[in-house]
Amino acid sequence: MEMKRKHDLPSTVAVKEEELKTHKRLSIEATDEEPLHVVEEEPAPQVQKQTKQKRTRNPGNLLLDLSQMETNTPLCHTKKIDYANECSQVTEFLYVGGAIVAAKQELLLAHGITHIINCAATVTPDFFPHLFSYYRLPLRDHATQDIHRHFYTIFQFIDKAREENGKVFVHCVKGISRSPAMAIAYLMARERLSLYPALERVRASRPVIDPNAGFIFQLNEWDALRQQARKQVTVFRIERSDDVDSSSTKNPLIIGPIMPQKICSISPEIPTVSIHEDHQSCCFVVLSMETNYCSVWCGRNVSDELIDSARTAMRLLQTYEAYPDSFDVIMSGHEPDSFWTVLVPESQTTSTNKNNVI
Hints:
The chain is of the alpha/beta class and 358 residues long.
């Protein structure tokens, strides 16, 4: 009897396990067949399929019956994949999109495109250089990428196309971050908009846009600095692009604004002031709206090409920021008193007379 019980025990356990499995299987099968539970149990795999398509709109709206989404056409048209083939019109002459559109000659011509700004020039070629005028920008879609320095030359390229009755297509890879950021900046400058109205203007034509946080920060900071520049002295450093992959190597890069104190050196015997020795290979634009003063300062070691770029930069700032119409070119060591009066007011000099470098 003991041996029989020993052999019965595993059999009993096996039977119980089999019954438990059968019970679970029957429960699952019964649940799958009950219509009342379909909405609660079935959506899980469907949510997984739809997540990527819904992420740019309202990803929290996932607990309703997903069958309703199939007839919701406005949501379908805002998916990134849908806009990959869209040449989105922002204004009468300005369009935004991605590389797929940039490679479609017939689509570009159908929209009347004549000029193209390639914001992803390191990874996207100029597909039709014989048909369109290109401006190449090797930008990365990264928060640390400086886009501000390119704004004014981009504005000039767009306006030149507009004057020729042309139309401009600004593109990156997907038309989501880099190219929309440039379109937003243009609207801010040309239509005197602040950041968020300009952003919503572009988003209205292309709902999938999503400039990265670094671009948004730069646009917001640029907006604030433009307002401040009308109340205080503003300094920009001018550079020339040395990127061999860019068609804009002759266009100036406008860096700043920079605090005037950052470029000055004050000797212990006030009021002797000079531009710091480290900047003798630089050009700076110095502006004061309050005193209606403009000048281009050039260090001892600057090239003629850089001076020409600084002149061009000054004219761009006059065009897009309404700075004074005339300006002087000042060489290092030949600064007039008016230059120092604007750059380092007497009150600042007195308050910092114990420091060699402000």
